[in-house]
Every structure is written in structure tokens, then in C-alpha cells.
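Narrative of activities, Objective 1.

The group set out to show that a structural description can be obtained from nothing but a protein's sequence at a throughput compatible with the screening campaign. Below is one input-output pair from the validation batch, recorded exactly as produced.
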Amino acid sequence: MEYLLRLLSNLFRSPVDHELEEFCYNLENRVKDLKRRIAEMQMVVGKRHDGKVEPTIRIVETPKPAPTPERPDINELKAKLMGRK
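Output recorded for this entry:
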């Protein structure tokens, strides 16, 4: 009787292919990883697949002021006040 019950349960139970399940799981992980890497590269480039654009920082360089010409009378005054002359 026990043998008959086991035989009937084996007939109605679908066989599980563990190798196929593992392959599908690995394939799903590889697809997710690839999508993540594509999204990261699109963020680096500045385009995203969902239409969002990453903010950019604009740095505007201000022109440097022209150096003031050396005036010999100021240098003489500095030297006199510092006690060099």
C-alpha cells in the first residue's frame, strides 16, 4: 500500500529540474547586473534611460586682475620703514 501511494505521488508531482532552475537564476542575475552597469554608464555619460538628466556644475572662471606695476617709491618707503636703509 505504501509503495502504491509513493508511486501515485510521484506521478502527480512535476519533476524539478535543478540544473534548469539554477541556470535561470544565474541568467536573471546576469541580466540585472548588466542593466545596472548600463544605467551606471548612462549616468556617467549624462543620459539615463528614464529621461532624467544628472545635474551638472558649471564653473565659470573669472578673469584674474592685472598685476599692479611695481612702484620704486613705495619699495623705498618700505625699506626705510623696515630699517633697511
